[in-house]
Sequence to fold (102 residues):
Amino acid sequence: MSSPDPFEVAPDAEVVALAKQVAALIETPDTISDEALARLFAAMVRLYAARHEQGTCTGPFGQDGYGVTATDVMIATTAMLRAVNVQLFELGMWQAWAGSRA
Fold:
């Protein structure tokens, strides 16, 4: 029997519990390895993109934002753009081409 897929989508209650555990790491960010953080971040970005492509995603932070600040977004966005070698100009062009989908 094969082991379960670690990226299998869990029921909402399990996902919310996992989100709470991850949020608790903000107080002690050194307790998660760079590799684990990268895997988690990549999985969430891919999941968000898949939902966005389906047209079923309302926004990255929901209605109340869950405490995400503009600085948080700028830091993460800059890191993601660098990681995939995309310049800000290219992002602007993609948004223009994508129209209302972006």
